[in-house]
Every structure is written in C-alpha cells, then in structure tokens.
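ok so i was messing around last nite and threw this chain in just to see what happens. nothing serious, just curious
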Amino acid sequence: MLGPVLLLTVIFFLHFVARQVAGPLLPAMEAELGLSHFQGGLFILCMGTGFFISQIGAAFLVGRWGYRRCILVSLWGAAVSTAALGFMGSAWALYLGFLCLGITGGLYVPAGISLITVLVRPRDWGKAMGIHEVAPNMALITVPFLATAVVAAVSWRLGYLLAAAVLALFGAAYLFFGVDSEKRPSPPDLQRIREIAANPSFWSLGLLLSLAVGVETGVYSMVPLFLVSERGFDLADANQLLGLSRIPGLVMVLLAGWITDRLSPSTTITLALALTGTAVVALGVGPAGWIAPAVFVQAAASACLFPPILSLASRISTTENRALTLSLSLAVAPVIGGGLLPAGIALAGDLGSFAAGLVGAGLLTAAGIGLVSPLKR
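result:
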C-alpha cells in the first residue's frame, strides 16, 4: 500500500502549500492592495476558521460520502478557492476566499489520515504516518522559495493560480487512480462530544495544541512581514531565511519522538516550549545578529512539540473517545494558534511594533508550560 500512501502524502503537501503560502506572500499582497498588517493577519484567521468548520463537518461527511469523495471535494474545492484568490481585488472578497480555502482544504485531513489507517496494517501505521508527516515539513521549507519566485516572475496572484492548477490536476489523478474503502467511520456520538467537552484536560490539550500550531505556523506566517516591515529585509532574503530555517525541522520532528521516549512527554514539551518562547522573544527584541539564530531555533524547537503533545494526549481519554478528543482539539488549534495569534502580531505591527507582538507571542508560549502539569496528572 505504499503507492496510495505516497499519493496521499503529495496531496497533503499540496494542501499545506496552498494554505501556508499566504504568509510569504503577505508583504506583496499588502503593497499591491494597500492593506494594513491587521487585514493581512485576518486572512490567516479566516483560513483557520474555515479549517475549524471543516474538521467539525468532516466527522459527519466522511461517514456519509466516503473517503474518496471527501478527498476529491477537498482537492477541487481548494482549486476553485485558490483560483478565486488569484483574481480577487478587495479585502472582503479575500476574507471570503480564505475562509473557503480553509473549509475545502481542511476537509482532506480527517479523510486522508483515516483512509491510511484503513489501508495500512496496524503494525505499519507508524511508518505510514511518518511518510505522511513529511508533507507539512517539506511544504514549510519550499513555500517561501515558491513565493519569492512567483513574486519576482509576475505577482503574488500567479502563486495562487498555479496552486489551483496543480490541485485540480491532482483531483483528476485521484479520480482515476485514487483508492477508497467500504469501511467508513461512524458519525460522532453527541453524548461523547459532551463528555469530552466536560473534561478540563480536553481544554488544556486544546490550548497546548493551539500554542504548538501558533509558534509553528502562526509565527511562520508573520516572520516575512516582520522582517520586511521592521528589520529592513528584502522580501526575497526574508523568505530565503524562512525556508532554510525549516530544514532542521525534518530531523527534529523525528528526534523529538526519541527524546520523548527517553525523557517523558511532559519534560520534552516543557523544554520545547521554553526554547521556542525564548527564541520568539529574541527575534522580536534582539539585535540584528540574533535574527537568523532566533528564526532557526524557533523553527527547530517548535517542530519538537507535536510528537510529545500527541503522546501525552493519549492519556487523558478513554480508548473509545481518544480519536474524537484529538479531532476536536486539533480543530480548535488552527483558529486560536493559526488564526488569532498571527492576527494579534499583525495588529501590533499596525500599532507600531511587530516586535511587541512577537514578545507577547513568545511569553504566551513560555506560559504554556503551566498547561503541562494538569495533563501530566
């Protein structure tokens, strides 16, 4: 079943590129359309909100439509949304476009990951998920370079039009070559949802995952804007630094699993939060010589957060509720961490200091250490 896993990994990569390219393109979008930094930050928030909506809806749709149809809808829906973004000329139209991109693109995640667990033998799940998780890390590396190339060639609009064409092409490929399964998940039980929501540990987990998403992709989306607006970087140089800094993440996400087993999930999370928070603060207020090291440390440390958090998460719920608990907590994270946090940094930039926004994000990340003890207990 290596072929289907590789195809799904490529599809995941394309979805991640379509969502994450907004950050490296924001300086060019703001310059052309005359937008404020906060308006640019709201694009990310709208996309995160759409992603949240899709995660809630997908729990019902996958059982009703099946995996294949959900994946096709996600590909072609994201293709239409990204194509529309390439033609839109007002902030309000772009808000709607990013919301639709979050909804359609986010539909892939529960369908694709669930399909892998059906196609692959349980003893090979770890290897299959390891291959699949290469996609977001590769996307974070390649997106800044792709954004720089399209802005230099034509404009930011070309990036979304190209993404739309590739997504549509892979939709056609999946129509003919994609696999499906008759085994469909049961729709979520509303009683279980209420039980999970009543557990205080669920909210601690949701906030912790929100911080992890925030310092990995939320800060990521704001770094080019900060470097160009306040540190005098050229857009190409800012995106180059951003892309190169994500290369160690490919190794760190694997190393984090080994460290988690050696030290314990709670200790690994604490160390990663402390390092990441310190790096974000240093990026905001440190001298020029600290910028590149801070970006690299922030990228490497934030990549270490997800393996131990997901490991610790398995202890806070029953076997029957575990998958639904993770699904609901991961649905909240893109809104808080991937949306509200970068929007807050962007607002600080409009008020005169991106640095203040980054310091606040760094301190908030470090404060997340306080969420570890309740989960540990």
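not much to say yet. The chain is about 85% helix and 0% strand.
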